[in-house]
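Repro:
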Amino acid sequence: MHPSRLTRSLRFYFITDHQAPALSALGQVRAALQGGASFVQYRNKAFQLSSYEELRRIRDLCRINGVPLVINDDVLLARAIGADGVHLGQEDGNPREARAILGPEALIGISISTLAELSRTDLAPCDYVGSGPVYATGTKADAKPVRGIAGLQEIVTRVPLPVVAIGGITALRAADCLRAGAAGVAVISAITRAPDPGAAAARLGKACGCERRNSLEDGWQDEFKLISALIAPAQEKASESDALIPPGDDAGRLAPLAFPVITTDTQREGIHFHREWLTPETIGERAVEVTLSDLAASYARPVSLFVNLGLPAALSETTINRIYHGLYTALERHGCRLGGGNIARADKLSLDLFAVGEGQRDCFPRRSMAKPGEGLYATGPLGLARCGLLALQQRNHRFPALVQRFLLPRARFDAAAILAAHGVRCVMDISDGLAGDAAHIAAASEITIKLDPSEAARHPELQSFCEACRLSPEEMVLAGGEDYELLFTCPDTQFAAMTPLLPGACQVGRCEDFDGTPLRNVPANLCSYQHGQRL
């Protein structure tokens, strides 16, 4: 999770109370979320397998409503239930081991009460700190001595991570903790032991500046109703005189195509994207752009797109509709229409996309058309998307432009039109990294390509990021994927003629007679991403 988003999420931090006399843990979470809670910790010191189903329902409720859920102390339970992370006490486990088990995207919280505890705590694997008790509390029998606002400030000023205040906090006391520098306040009994938990949660939400939820979202259930909502914009754009039949029947009909070009792509949560990185709109928009990029590399006009959705139960209809809003935005950008699709239940969100385009009569670019003596060129900067991905993984918020390069690529139909007009015959899009994709051209054309990333490596944003992270700009250019620029070969004179029309294009190598090796000038330990590759 991006640091700024995490800080916002920690504002109203609710912890379940397994000893609450009148309200189940699920009921507690519902009351807290309706009151505006922005973060939930499941704490149950007496957890048994009989509680697993309730925890699963809590997980889904939090996920549907966009609220992170962490598990108190139990790393293995957090992994088993698919929680967003874990919160550890000083005696409850090693944050570094928790990170190794839960992965780089997990949220790791650690409790720190005193400066002595701070001095012996490894904060490197952690995302936030819980500090207290600020006030006296009766919820925890083993609570440590009260630290007060001064003790809270002592931790806040010495910790480089967001700090959540905990212990005896009420709606009236929340403001003092926030003024002391806490990113948020954690509450238990102020809600779970209140006569009216919902009203107590609303008061705390107001004190924290968190908006009350008038109703909680539920997961999607009615497939037919959902399909009708998703295809409605496509049906509205259709006209009776249009040869293309919009989605809504068993199959779609396209207008006649002289030279149909077909491509497919897939986007899997946890492999191609993480939902905490992207808005729902960006998920849809990005999926369309990367799919249509293959049509751009084929000089094909996009005509129709079919989408098969795999939807987890913990996904609201609102979120799904927002995904499709982004999808339609990208389709509109490129003059393409939605042809149809399918919906199925899945463990994780996935989009399988199938695109149809109309190719050109006289030119279909091929990987096998590169010739010795030609230069190898890219239509724009390379390695920036890889840097943006690393910035997200490292929670580094200093390079937003690079992050955008990863989150929102563009299919280069504009560049493709220029290449087609100049008769360029060898083109492909760069999705797997320069080294990997150049190897495809070399193999198909039976040539050797001598790569030279030096010009592309001079991009100022690329250099700034690599300098800050002690990385090689050249290696980022070679190995970085998902740039979705076009990679092409042509004679030097042909490139010179196109240069004024392709700002940002640069040479990245040269084609030579095959000498027994497809690529030259590639570090031995460098490789582009491959699905199934064991790292």
